[in-house]
């Protein structure tokens, strides 16, 4: 009996030591795991890694009804299978005249909701978080695209174009001049953002991003070179931020408390006397106070003809500064193409996640390849089981 008890004790001791060794090994592996492939939690949403797909316009709603098609399903779900942690569906218009082109996606009516559900469900099944960017194109709306022509030009009314709007009546480059919105118009568009966000929740999205960058309507209000209003929506920085803050408040009010809200901004318009990073820091602080969980940091797109010093990682310093000065999580985007480059950005605390855009168009499985190059263990790389035989 004593011998059996002693043997049992030895066995338990060995088991305990093995368990401790396994736990220590797991802890060491976790500690050495590349920061790029650690999960990130915002409110109640957890993305499996910090490699995200940014919203890139596909201009492929060929029926011009705002509804995603088989192409959109394949485009987004393939990137989810490719290991991205979060997928942001492209700029989705909150009104028909808020589209960038006639072939943009939209969520301006309830009848569009069901067309998104198969995408959100499949993205989740593939292990990624489905997010969506909501937009109003403002003065940069009604332009052409590859499927209809008029690329970079205003689409004529008889070809499906429409009159555009903006904070003021100043045109962008050679595009048509917009009509300046009155206050009732502004309030109406704010409510359309709210309604579109509710539809996004109903369609199964788990994060919403408000597009306030690249010279579209909300960023037009921010920029003093574009917004020449003299009422409560123009002039001072607080006034120029007003419409965006109102949109944030309305959207935050209809999306679930446990799901995050993002805002994409252009941190600078690269123009003398225009929108800059110091104003962006103030904006980010304000948005954080109003329930925004992350700032998606880009630049440019507001002023025509400016020189932008494009090079690998050229926008990362803006994400870094906003993150540090405003105390809010950020993403970095723009010519981030190499795994070590992306890893360094996250590991050094310059941004909380990176967005892989054009490189992801070339390689839908960029995260899987990057994880292998950075030494992530094969069992920890988010391969679909069906693809394990082809693992790097």
UniProtKB/TrEMBL annotation:
The keyword Kinase does not apply. Its cofactor is FMN. Transmembrane segments: none annotated. Keywords: Flavoprotein, FMN, NADP, Oxidoreductase. GO terms for molecular function: FMN binding; NADP binding; NADPH dehydrogenase activity. Residues 1-30 are annotated as: Disordered. CDD domains: OYE_YqiM_FMN (cd02932). Residues 36-373 form the NADH:flavin oxidoreductase/NADH oxidase N-terminal domain. Gene3D superfamilies: Aldolase class I. The keyword Oxidoreductase applies. Residues 12-30 have a biased composition (Low complexity). This is NADH-dependent flavin oxidoreductase YqjM.
């Amino acid at each position: 009996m004593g011998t059996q008890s002693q043997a049992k004790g030895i066995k338990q001791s060995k088991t305990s030591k093995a368990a401790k060794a396994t736990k220590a090994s797991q802890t060491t592996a976790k500690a050495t795991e590349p920061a790029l492939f650690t999960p990130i939690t915002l409110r109640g949403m957890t993305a499996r890694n910090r490699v995200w797909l940014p919203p890139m316009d596909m201009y492929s709603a060929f029926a011009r009804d705002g509804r995603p098609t088989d192409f959109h399903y394949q485009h987004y779900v393939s990137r989810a299978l490719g290991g991205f942690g979060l997928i942001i569906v492209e700029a989705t218009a909150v009104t028909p005249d808020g589209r960038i082109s006639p072939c943009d996606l939209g969520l301006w009516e309830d009848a569009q909701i069901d067309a998104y559900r198969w995408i959100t469900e499949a993205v989740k099944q593939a292990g990624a978080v489905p997010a969506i960017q909501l937009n109003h194109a403002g003065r940069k709306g009604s332009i052409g695209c590859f499927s209809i022509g008029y690329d970079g030009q205003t689409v004529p009314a008889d070809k499906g174009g429409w009159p555009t709007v903006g904070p003021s009546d100043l045109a962008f480059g050679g595009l048509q001049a917009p009509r300046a919105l009155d206050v009732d118009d502004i309030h109406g568009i704010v409510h359309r953002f709210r309604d579109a966000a509710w539809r996004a929740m109903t369609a199964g999205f788990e994060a919403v991003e408000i597009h306030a960058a690249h010279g579209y309507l909300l960023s037009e209000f921010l920029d003093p070179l574009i917004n020449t209003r003299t009422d409560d929506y123009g002039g001072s920085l607080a006034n120029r931020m007003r419409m965006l803050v109102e949109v944030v408040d309305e959207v935050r009010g209809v999306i679930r408390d446990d799901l995050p809200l993002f805002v994409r901004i252009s941190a600078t318009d690269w123009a003398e006397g225009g929108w800059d990073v110091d104003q962006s820091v103030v904006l980010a602080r304000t948005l954080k106070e109003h329930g925004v969980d992350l700032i998606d940091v880009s630049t440019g797109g507001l002023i025509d003809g400016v020189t932008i010093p494009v090079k690998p990682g050229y926008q990362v310093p803006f994400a870094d500064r906003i993150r540090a000065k405003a105390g809010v999580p950020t993403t970095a985007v723009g010519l981030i193409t190499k795994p070590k480059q992306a890893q360094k950005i996250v590991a050094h605390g310059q941004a909380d996640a990176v967005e892989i855009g054009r490189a992801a168009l070339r390689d839908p499985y960029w995260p899987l390849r990057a994880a292998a190059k950075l030494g992530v263990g094969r069992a920890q790389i988010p391969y679909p089981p069906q693809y394990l035989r082809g693992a790097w």
